[in-house]
C-alpha cells in the first residue's frame, strides 16, 4: 500500500476503490473504469487495481487498453504470472501470436503447475499449427487436472485431428497386413537378420514391428508427421522393440547415410501408396531412396503396383461428377470444377460395369527413375450404358507369389478405397464397341481421359 500522506487521503482512496468495485459488480463498466483510474492516480494499491482494470477493459473489447494495463502491472512486478498469462491471451486476441506464446510460456515457467495457463498455451500453439507441441501441453494440463472434461476433449481432438481417418482401418486390414508380413518375412529370410531395414512412411510402426519380429536386428523408420512419429515411438517401446527400431520424425528425403542410417539399407518397406497410387509423391520418394539410401541390390517391398480399373455407369456417382439443368437453369458449365478423382467404397455405391477389368498403369518400384508416361488404351465395351468414368483400384506385387489388391467386389473394409476417375462429360457406349482412353501419369497423379475420334 502506498503512503498517501494523511489518514484522510487514505480513507478517500479506500472509499474510491470500494465505489469502483461496486460499480464493477453492478455492471457499470464505464463508471468502474473511471473509478479505478482515479484510484490509480492517487497511487493506491496499484498491483491490485490494475488486474481489475485490465479485466474490465477486456470485457469492453478494448484489447489495446487492456494490454497497456497488463504492461503497467508488469513494469511494477515483472514476474507476475497472472499478468503474463493474461497479457499473452490479449496479444493472441490482437493477432500477435509470437509475442503471445512468449508471454504465456514465461507465465508457465513461473507457475509450472497451473493447468489453465498450460492449456491456454496449448490453444495458442494449436492456432499456429504447432500441433504436436499443443498436444503435449494439453496432456500436461490434463495430468494436473485428470477430471477436466474440456482438456480431455482437447487431447482427443488434437490427436485425431492431425491424423488422417484411414490410418485405423488400414491397421485393421488383416489381408493387407498378412500380405505385407509374408513379404517381409521372406525378405529377411533371404537377406539375413543383419540386413538393415528402412521403413518409409512408418505410420504406427506396424511394418517395422513386423520386420523386427521376423528377426531384423536394425530397423530405421521415418514418419514425416511428428505427432504420428511420436506415437510410433511409443508403440515400438510398448511392444519391446525399442532396442532394434528407431523412428525419426522427418520425411525420408531428410535422412542421410552417416546420420540416421549407418549404411545403405538392404531392405526397403514402405506403405505410402495412396488409393490412386501416386498422390503421396510415391515416385519422388522411391527415386530418392534408390539414389541415396539403398544398397544397389536392395529388396524393395512393394516391388510393383498397378492401377486396375473398369469402365462404369452410375446414376448416383454421376450426380457427384456432373451437373446440368437445376431448378430450370443451365448450370452445366460448373461441371468444369467437378473432382477428377472421387473416392468410393467398394460396391456400397451402386454402379454398373461396362467393361472387363483392365490394367491401366503399372509402376515398377525397383526402377531407379520414372518418367511421366502417356499411352492409348483401347477398352472393349461389354454392356450398353452411359459411361461416366473409370473405377480404379490397386494391385500390389509384394514378393514372388505374394500380392494384395483392393478389388471392389471383395474388399470394402480397409484403408484403401477405390477411386472414380470421372470423364469430362458422360459418354454413351454400346456393347461390342471400343472406347479409346489416354492412360498414364504425370509422376504425381494418374491420367485417365477419353480420346476423341
From TrEMBL:
A GO cellular component entry from the record: ribosome
Assigned keywords, A-Z: Methyltransferase, Ribonucleoprotein, Ribosomal protein, TPR repeat, Transferase
Top-level taxonomic group: Bacteria
Presence of keyword Disulfide bond: no
Keyword Ribosomal protein: yes
GO BP term, pick one: methylation
TPR repeat coordinates: 115-148
Species: Sphingomonas agrestis
GO molecular function: methyltransferase activity
Protein name per its UniProtKB record: 50S ribosomal protein L11 methyltransferase
